[in-house]
Amino acid sequence: QVQLVESGGGLVQPGGSLRLSCAASGTIFSLYAMAWYRQAPGKQRDLVAFITSGSGLSTKYADSVKGRFTISRDNAKNTVYLQMNSLKPEDTAVYYCNSAGSPWPWGQGTQVTVSS
Hints:
Blueprint: E1 3-7, E2 10-12, E3 18-25, E4 34-39, E5 45-51, E6 59-61, E7 69-74, E8 79-84, E9 93-99, E10 110-114
Parallel strand pairs: 2-10
Antiparallel strand pairs: 1-3, 3-8, 4-5, 4-9, 5-6, 7-8, 9-10
């Protein structure tokens, strides 16, 4: 069974930065496109960023985070990252990673709170 463990969240002031990590086990991680999602209280879970698998990696971002967030992956570590800069209060949410295709069981997520 695939397991996903997100980490790196916390409380940060507006304009600050965080780096999220997501470690995957139980799958051939390198074969799958991966994505970060977020869910704010009372809202649906939305796609934040996407990264392809294989060589020639490409990425896509939600308009709300474009230019501020960067997704990357380390296949040797079965880990996908989300570097978040210039954080805004509206980025406050629980952040999850998962396959960009048919989702695996969701991890517990990591809470990001942007507040002064």
